[in-house]
Amino acid sequence: MKRRVSARRRLLCGASALVLTMAAMSLLHPGAALAQAAAQPQARSWQFNIPAKPLLAALADFTALTGVQVVRSSGEALGGSSAPVSGTLTAAQALARLLAGTGLSARFTNASTVVLSRPGEATRPVGVAPDGSEELDPIDVTANVPPADAPYATPGPVSYISGEQVERLPPTSLGDIFRDTPGVIATGNRIGASVDLNIRGLQGQNRINVMVDGTRQTNSSYRGYRGSRNEVYIDPDFIGGVDINKGPYGGAGGVGAMGGVVNMRTIEAGDILKPGAEYGARLKGSLGSNTVTPPGAHSYDYETSAPDFFNGDAWSGSVAAGLKKDNYEFVAAASRRKAGNYFVGTNGADSFLDDRTGGTPVERALSPIKPGWEAFNTSQDVASFLTKGKVGWGDGQALELGYIYYNNKYGDYNETLLSFVGHPTIITPYEQFGLAETTTNTFTSKYTYDPDSDYINFTAHAWVSDVETFSQVLKDFNAVPEADGKTHIRTYGGDAANISLFDTPLGQLRVNNGAETVYEMADENPVYSYGLQSKNPSGNRLLLSAFNQSKLEMTDWLALLGGLRYDYYELTPTDQLSDYPAKDGGRLNPSAGVELTLAKGFQLFGLYTEGWRPPSLRESASLTFATVLPNPDLEPETSKNAEFGTNLLRDDVFIAGDKLRLKASYFNNNYDNYIIRTRIPDNPSYYTWTNIPRAKFVGYELSGSYDAGKFFVEASFTRYTDIQFCGEGGVCGFDVASGDYGLVSIPPEYSGTITAGIRLFDEALTLGGRAYFFGERYGGYRLLGGAVNAPTYWTSNTIVDFFGSYKFNDDVTWDFSLENAFDRYYLDPLSTGLLPSPGRTMRTSVSWRF
Fold first, then answer.
1. 737: exposed, middle or buried (C-beta count within 10 Å: 0-12, 13-18, 19+)?
2. Across 117-121, 331-335, 527-531, which has the greatest mean pLDDT?
């Protein structure tokens, strides 16, 4: 078919995003990159700018810049102040200046570890006690475990995604960033521009709290036969890191979300500045392949083959500037991102033998979108802005304020209609709909007070999140002309917590006490609507919580964990549901655990945690699909989760400077009063929400990495061994929840990733690849008794990506990737619609820090 817009024009438009960053490369000395590649590791220099400050803080800055860990093997506490350090220096030179006047000297034991000692003090290898036995805990003066290492030092179900991992393989859809995380899958990942997560089988109805800088968006949309989805929006260019807690969480963010808490942290000044710099900026631009500008609304004219190479229809550009002083810091960033409709892969099975209904098997297409076709309604056009400021004063006080603006005009699908494309009796065309538009405004504030006291480490947050969405799909398929396709939800929240340390006869006690509140206000055009997509919630919900998290370190090898959390809610329907009664309730949720440290960096742990989720606004205050009636009599869900696992975090295992990280967990999660959609017994033409006695998800997770400098390997794996839904009388089986949208939340039996890479030319060049694999849906795809909607069928598959990065110097970096390298035709696991994933896609980007 004829291209809608000239490839030359699109390429020129897209390439403009790279102009500023590519210009920086022309300023480099021709031999700069080669000279850096030839430098010896021990002669490497950094640009230092560390002012005089408390010694511990200065050493933490030194480690953050160089990666060299500083330890005090004698166990003596470190006090006093450092000397200032500035200029281009090696690690040894900088450390000698920093320690001037302290009476301490530094001795490197390997390329990444240095020991501090005083004259006349006996020295010994790190990790070896005076009697020759292994030391369990050398003192780490950096105080804080690096975020990437935190999951392997935490006795519990936690994971972390770094900003580097996000940039390594840039996401086509936001949910792509979670592929390397065990137990986490983005549901309906190709629908719209948001992310909706499934964690260990739980999803939707606010079971998972996905936050941006600690704020909730609590937005959702109804998707017809495929249920509803939670929706959270963020620009990937602004992600500095992602913290993931699976299951009930005892701290801030955990109220009302028993399935997990995910916080996507946006960039800060430290993510932008060059090491040791007080101010600077970053320019970044990128180009992508495999997309085409979408046609106008109600078009049926799709392309049948992807354009060659880069055509300018997928590009991004961003600029960020930061300032960081001793008592204040500031960052501001703006981003523009655009991508057309992508093309699906061409290789692999595009059909399956369909025996879901129990009749004669029939060969059926996986999707009405054939291999190589343009995937309508997958475009994005994003403009976003971020700013944060922080000021500190007095004895450890600081105030931080932030604002995030996000606007996206994007393709939106009605998953239900896509299922009927090509249906013999229900005529539904393959169609490009009008674009949807979502705008979010997020305001954050944070106050901290951390004086030189074991008893006070106080933090308080207050925030507002406002989300407005216009959906042309919702408007087009609404039988009421007055319906405008708009939804609006505003959420207010805040929390406060204090961490105290106490020395007791039984050992050191760490206590985190806090409180949290969230207030949701949702409204839609109050006209009673009917259509394949219809009502979003109209109501208000208040969540309150008080919590305690405690850890008692009884010995060097034994620690006890415990906590209590009291959650409370009030729910008030509004608009045409105002006659429904308000509802409230509360529950005390305990947790307990044990942590065994058998050797330095080697832990065993066992945990028991209870959680609680009150009914969402959708379940209690929403008329969906006109035949799904809210149920104000719903009882809250409760969870009772048991977990056993092990952590291994060791350095210098096989060679000096290497790093080995492993985490393995077995989980057995049980949910009482689990809420599902079901038919009304007296009138099976109508649905409502109800509680079933129990649901259960059992499985195990593995994750780990090994980094030897010259090469690295990372892996993750999840397998489910038992999934149950149990009704009255103890009868268990998938049929118990057959009316719950075809049980679309059941994950694949197994999934995982393997990533490997090498670093060449003194680590200037990085080359690597990733294999992402997944199996079929746990329990199969059959049409359950009483259901009208068979689960989406996806085949087991392995998707291979390649990536690379070249550092011309410390300032300019070129990144490139080849995703779905073998152009596989496939549907993501937990696809909510029959929308295949992108085919082979190339990306290239340049970033310049100055």
1. buried
2. 331-335
Residue 395 β-bridge partners: none
**DSSP one-letter string for 92-140:** HHHHHHHTTTTT-EEEEEETTEEEEE-TT-----TTB-TTSSBPS--EE
> Could you tell me how many helices (H) and strands (E) the chain has, helices first?
10, 42
Contact criterion met (CB below 8 Å) for 646 and 663? yes
d(CA 537, CA 72): 57
**Span 462-490, mean pLDDT?**
82
Q: Which residues contact 407 (CB under 8 A, 6 or more apart)?
A: 382, 383, 384, 437, 438, 439, 440
Greater model confidence, 157 or 481:
157
CA distance 696 to 730: 13
Give me 286's structure tokens: 């990128």
Task: Locate 528 and state its tokens.
Answer: 């009673």
Domain boundaries defined on the chain: 39-140, 150-849
- The answer to whether 286 and 170 are in contact (CB under 8 A) is yes
Q: Which two tokens stand for residue 54?
A: 């408390």
Q: pLDDT of 772-829, one tens digit each?
A: 999 999 999 888 877 777 788 999 999 999 999 999 998 999 999 999 999 999 999 9
39-140 domain in CATH 3.40.50.10320? no
Scan for tokens 């009636």, then name that residue.
Answer: 629
CB neighbour list of residue 762: distance below 8 Å, 6 or more residues apart: 36, 37, 38, 39, 40, 41, 44
Cβ neighbourhood burial of 327 (10 Å; 0-12, 13-18, 19+):
exposed
Residue pLDDT, tens place only, 443-452: 999 999 999 8
How many angstroms from the chain centroid is the CA of residue 721? Answer: 25
CA distance 404 to 444: 9
Given CA atoms 823, 826, 832, 834 in this order, what sign does their dihedral have?
Answer: positive
Left (φ > 0), alpha (ψ -120 to 50) or beta: where does 27 sit?
alpha
* Cα separations in angstroms, 175 against 26, 172, 626, 742, 749: 36, 8, 30, 22, 19
Decide yes or no: CATH 2.40.170.20 for domain 150-849: yes
CA distance 827 to 355: 18
Q: Give yes or no for a contact between 442 and 403, defined as CB atoms under 8 angstroms apart.
A: yes
The mean pLDDT value of the chain amounts to 85
536: DSSP letter: P
Whether 134 shows a pLDDT value over 50: the answer reads no
Which one-letter DSSP state was computed for residue 283?
E
The Cα 495–Cα 819 span in angstroms is 40
> Parallel, antiparallel, or unpaired for β 602-613 and 659-680?
unpaired
Say which residues have a Cβ less than 8 Å from residue 538's Cβ, sequence separation at least 6.
Answer: 522, 523, 524, 526, 573, 574, 575, 576, 577, 617, 621, 622
pTM of the model: 0.84
**Residue 41 banded pLDDT, cuts 50, 70, 90:** very low
Instruction: Work out whether strand 539-553 and strand 507-524 pair parallel, antiparallel, or are unpaired.
Output: antiparallel
Whole-number Å distance between alpha carbons of 24 and 599: 49
Separation of alpha carbons 647 and 262, rounded Å:
21
494: number of CA atoms within 13 Å, CB side? 7
Question: Would you state the pLDDT for residue 86?
Answer: 79
CA distance 488 to 538: 10
